[in-house]
């Protein structure tokens, strides 16, 4: 397998991203995936990526997971409150708890992919969430 980190280490877009310089609009899906995965491997810092909707967040997660495995997490909620109240998916609730637990109990850097509907929802404080974890 090709080591993309070595191959792209001199890439201008990767350096701009790592230096927080704007000007990276219009990336293709593959460019976005390689940029995020290589930046994460170089810096080993937690990244929070906010995509425009749940579908885009899931697509990015599906592209990054083969490259980073357990270093990438998807924090998702239904895009519509009405859908969430009528037909809430137990898989999404389970995934939310898994992401929150992993982020709390594992201090290693991660890429967390989310979308606006997920980040505007109420989340318990770290202390409250930690107090309600049940160890089996």
Q: What does the model show?
A:
With about 140 residues, this protein is mainly alpha-helical. About 55% of the residues lie in helices and about 10% in strands. It has a three-stranded parallel beta sheet, with helices on both faces. It has eight helices and three strands. The radius of gyration is 16 Å and the shape is globular.
Q: What string gives the helices and strands in order?
A: HHHEHEHHEHH
Structural class: mainly alpha
Assembly annotation: single chain
Task: Kindly state the number of beta strands.
Answer: 3
**Mean pLDDT over all positions:** 78
Q: Helicity level, as a percent range? A: 40-55%
What is the strand content? 5-15%
Distance between the termini: 39 Å
Q: Biggest β-sheet: count, sense, barrel?
A: 3 strands, parallel
Strand order of the largest sheet: 1-3-2
As residue ranges, the low-confidence spans are: none
Radius of gyration: 16 Å
How many helices does DSSP assign? 8
Overall form: globular
Describe the structure in brief.
The protein has about 140 residues and is mainly alpha-helical. Helix content is about 55%, strand content about 10%.
Features:
single chain, about 140 residues, mainly alpha, three-stranded parallel beta sheet, 8 helices, globular
Task: Give the helices and strands, then pairings.
Layout: H1 4-7, H2 12-18, H3 29-43, E1 47-50, H4 54-68, E2 72-74, H5 81-87, H6 90-105, E3 111-114, H7 116-119, H8 126-131
Parallel strand pairs: 1-3, 2-3
Helix pairs in contact: 2-3, 3-4
């Amino acid at each position: 397998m090709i080591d993309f980190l070595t191959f792209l280490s001199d890439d201008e877009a990767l350096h701009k991203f790592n230096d927080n310089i704007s000007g990276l609009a219009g990336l293709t899906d593959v460019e976005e995936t390689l940029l995020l995965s290589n930046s994460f491997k170089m810096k080993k810092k937690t990244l929070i990526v906010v995509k425009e909707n749940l579908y885009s967040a899931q697509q990015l997660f599906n592209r990054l997971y083969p490259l980073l495995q357990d270093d990438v997490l998807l924090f998702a909620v239904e895009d519509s409150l009405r859908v969430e109240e009528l037909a809430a998916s137990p898989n999404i609730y389970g995934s939310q708890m898994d992401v929150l637990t992993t982020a709390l109990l594992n201090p290693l850097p991660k890429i967390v992919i989310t979308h606006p509907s997920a980040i505007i929802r109420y989340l318990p404080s770290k202390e409250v969430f930690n107090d309600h974890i049940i160890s089996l």
